[in-house]
Amino acid sequence: MKITIEKGNKVALVFGASGLVGGFCVHHLIASPIYKKVICFGRKKILVQHEKLEQRIIDFDKLEDYKNLIQGNDLFCSIGTTIKKAGSQTAFRAIDFELPKQIAHIALANGVDQFILVSTADANSKSKIFYNQVKGELEDEIRSLPFWGTHILRPSILLGERKEMRTLERVGMILGQGIDAIFGNLLGRYQPIKAEEVAKAMVAAAQKLEKGTYKYYSDQLKDLSNGKRKLIE
Asked: What distance in Å separates the CA atoms of residue 175 and residue 162, rounded to the nearest whole number?
């Protein structure tokens, strides 16, 4: 089964636009001739203005009050935090699992066609590492929903300027870039990747014409962002 993508006629919904990947995603959605409108949902406005962009300020603790606003074709979700920033495992789970889960269920009920999710390379609901476990549980939940298209992006270490960067993340970024530069694609799915490449891959993935559920690791994401489609069902 295939759908028709009409140039200039799709509506994109974005959650997480204030983040590193989400910000780039908004930029590329606005630049794409495929989308006639880009709607961002957040607690505060982002510093972007464009005739195609609508910003809707919402209270995520009362998401049901805004459910009628979550209507469009493709929903891009890059919501995420850290346990340190959230303050506890419970608070982290509320942001990284409960909130995207609620968004996905509302979107599905409103007839949204596709859900594009930024996850992490080692997401696994059976992992002993809490962070990876929560990310895996969210993936399982999203995959269980009957969207026309479900795209799960699993980047490794993200390259790009961000307000906060953990020490181990910074060390991994430097080592990963060094190995990648010397040995090429030795790290495969675990190679560092630019946040903008992930964002470009999100937009590209949403243009796939075949129905299904797909996941992409760093190496596939780089190819996808450059126009080479490598999909894993």
From this structure: 18
Residues 46-93: tens digit of each pLDDT: 999 999 999 999 999 999 999 999 999 999 999 999 999 999 999 999
CA-CA distance, 77 to 42, in Å (whole number)?
12
Residue 116: beta bridge partners?
A: 76, 151
> Which residue among the candidates 135, 194, 208, 222 is catalytic per the annotation?
135
Beta-carbon contacts of residue 189 (< 8 Å; ≥ 6 apart): 121, 154, 156, 217, 218, 219, 220
pTM: 0.87
Tokens of 123: 């997401």
- Under a CB-based contact definition with an 8 Å cutoff, are residues 145 and 105 in contact? yes
DSSP string, the chain: -B----TT-EEEEEE-TTSHHHHHHHHHHHH-TTEEEEEEEESS--S---TTEEEEE--GGGGGGGGGG--SSEEEE-----HHHHSSHHHHHIIIIIHHHHHHHHHHHTT--EEEEE--TT--TT-SSHHHHHHHHHHHHHHTS--SEEEEEE--SEES--S---HHHHHHHHHHHHHHHHHSSTTGGGS-EEHHHHHHHHHHHTT--B-EEEEEEHHHHHHHHTT----B-
131 is catalytic: yes
Distance CA 200, CA 82 (A): 24
One-letter amino acid at 157 equals: I
